[in-house]
TrEMBL record:
Residues 7-241 form the ABC transporter domain. PROSITE patterns: ABC_TRANSPORTER_1, ABC_TRANSPORTER_2. It comes from Deferribacter desulfuricans (strain DSM 14783 / JCM 11476 / NBRC 101012 / SSM1). Pfam families: ABC_tran (PF00005). InterPro entries: AAA+_ATPase (IPR003593), ABC_transporter-like_ATP-bd (IPR003439), ABC_transporter-like_CS (IPR017871), Metal_Ion_Import_ABC (IPR050153), P-loop_NTPase (IPR027417). Keywords: ATP-binding, Nucleotide-binding, Transport. The lineage of its organism: Bacteria, Pseudomonadati, Deferribacterota, Deferribacteres, Deferribacterales. The keyword ATP-binding applies. One of its GO terms (molecular function) is ATP binding. Belongs to the ABC transporter superfamily. This is Zinc ABC transporter, ATP-binding protein.
Length: 259
């Protein structure tokens, strides 16, 4: 991994009213890294993503990109897919127009796309294996296909970081596996880093490089294979969370975190 982090969070603190939501947050995200943020409901995961995006202002600490402080994220720097049940996305719009929406973010008003932009949109669709559906209606697609198109929309912005909030909501087990395989290919081929909030705690060790366990502060940050992680998860969630190892064999599996 390259030493210079794409994203660096130092001593971040966020409060809502008089309630401390995040404190002492220190994290580094590097090129090609896939980091999962896990933690109990209300632990501040979405707040952290939205603070990185500049939607919430921290009361202390700083966030740097490529070592530099920023007031506003550069256009397209982060491609963010918010927490939503993807099956419920039913825009009366063609797949190609969904992807073009991402590209338009990069263009000055009135956001007219030239041939090069259109080629980039096609390339983005190709990267997620959805180019055959370019003229289809978005609402006619399955949940997993819609997710791929929405990811293509982000790729059309040529982001350095892709951020997902609970990306496997609404996907079946195969769809979930496809999603993780896709993000693995994307980070390898596009030099991007991936930061995602997930409840797929049981399976993430197969797919992510690092895990940050967040419940107001960071309780663990390291490899999902680190022997300390199960104990940290048990402490933070108050129950035994089982991690599935690489061959998809579940060690004394007791089920999913959403139970
Ligand atoms: N805009 C807001 N104004 C006030 N409080 C907020 C706001 N957004 C979130 N909170 C509070 O901050 C805390 C953390 O919420 P957040 O959504 O970040 O948690 P989370 O870890 O993403 O939870 P979940 O896993 O349930 O999605 C919660 O107590 C929530 O009620």
């Amino acid at each position: 991994m390259n030493n210079q982090p794409i994203l660096e969070i130092n001593n971040l603190k966020v409060i809502f009213g008089d309630k401390v939501i995040l404190e002492n947050i220190n994290l580094k995200l590097h090129k090609k890294e896939i980091m999962a943020i896990v933690g109990p409901n209300g632990g501040g995961k979405t707040t952290l993503l939205k603070t990185i995006l500049g939607i919430y202002k921290p009361v202390a600490g700083e966030i740097r990109i490529f070592g530099k402080k920023y007031k506003r994220l550069p256009k397209g720097f982060v491609g963010y897919l918010p927490q939503k049940d993807l099956i419920n996305y039913n825009f009366p719009i063609l797949v190609k127009d969904v992807v073009c929406m991402g590209r338009k973010i990069l263009k000055p008003f009135p956001s007219i796309l030239n041939e090069e932009d259109k080629d980039s949109c096609y390339e983005a669709l190709k990267k997620v294996g959805m180019e055959k559906f370019i003229k289809e209606s978005f609402s006619s697609l399955s949940g997993g296909q819609k997710q791929r198109v929405l990811i293509a929309r982000l790729l059309a912005m040529q982001p350095k970081i892709l951020m997902f909030d609970e990306p496997s909501t609404g996907l079946d087990v195969v769809g979930q596996e496809d999603f993780y395989e896709l993000i693995n290919e994307l980070r390898m081929e596009n030099d991007i880093a991936i930061l995602m909030v997930t409840h797929d705690i049981g399976v993430i060790s197969n797919y992510v490089d690092t895990v940050a366990c967040l419940n107001k502060s960071i309780h663990f940050h390291g490899s999902p294979k680190d022997g300390k992680l199960p104990d940290v998860l048990e402490k933070v969630f108050g129950k035994n969370i089982q991690l599935i190892v690489h061959d998809h064999q579940c060690l004394t599996c007791k089920g999913h975190i959403h139970e």
